[in-house]
Amino acid sequence: MSLKIALRQVVKRRRDALSRNERERKAIAIKERLFVLPEFRNAESVLFYAAFGSEVPTLKMMSESLGLGKKIILPITDTKTKNLALRRVHDLKNLQLNQYGIPEPVPESTVHHDYNEVDLVIVPGVVFDRYGQRIGYGGGYYDRFLNRIDPSVPRVSIAFEEQIVPEIPAESHDLPVDKIITEERVIDACKARLIPPP
Questions:
Q1: DSSP of 75-141, one letter per residue?
Q2: b/e burial code for range 22-37 (CB count within 10 A of at least 16 → b)
Q3: Which pTM was predicted?
Q4: Domain 3-194 is found in CATH 3.40.1010.10
Q5: What does the pLDDT average to over 34-63?
Q6: In angstroms, what CA-CA distances link 66 with 69, 80, 84, 110, 198?
Q7: Angle between helices 59-67 and 20-36 (to 10 degrees)
Q8: In what order do the strands lie in the sheet with 71-78?
């Protein structure tokens, strides 16, 4: 078993052990940090993800973002091409569960959104380190997506403190995120990458 797979399993169990109330409470603190982030305040369109399982809950964040006048974009996973199709969502009731049990936009009730018209990407993941490296679920959807968008578009992840580890083994094709927001802090991964390890 690779170190990445082992880390994913350990951290996912740690995240799963959080009660629903704990996750909701932590999500409020994460949302407050996200909403004051300049990258969020300046963004007109935000690519969120619809949380499932024990992920940081995003439904209330998206609802409040709509109330702030943000364009909310959600992905649909294309299992044949392993790519993401982006849809603008005006009403969060227009979501359905895909084959993995992940909420996705209903194509008929949402609008196509271009890759080049995203101002901020909220990148999901299971494990993160302070350098912005992440371990997802193994499908590579977001790695392919991040390779196709302008590198100047901010990439921010939201996670519980339980999901942060000291270091993730990075490979050449891995694309780190710029910041990670937890219930306790904002990790500036770009700055951490500039400081050589001890």
A1: EEEETTTTEEEEEEES-TTSEEE-TTS-EEE-GGGSEE--GGG-SEEE---SEE-TTS-EE-SSS-H
A2: ebeebbeebbebbeeb
A3: 0.94
A4: no
A5: 97
A6: 5, 31, 22, 14, 43
A7: 30
A8: 111-112, 83-89, 71-78, 45-47, 120-122, 155-158, 179-181, 186-188
Give residue 188's identity as a one-letter amino acid code.
D
Tokens of 132: 């912005």
Q: What's the CA angle centered on 141, arms 137 and 145, to 5 degrees?
A: 140
pLDDT digits (tens, 9 = 90+) for 126-161: 999 999 999 998 788 898 999 999 999 999 999 999
Using CA atoms, how far apart are residues 141 and 122, in angstroms rounded to an integer?
14
Residue 42 reports pLDDT greater than 80: yes
Are 49 and 121 contacting, i.e. CB atoms less than 8 angstroms apart?
A: no
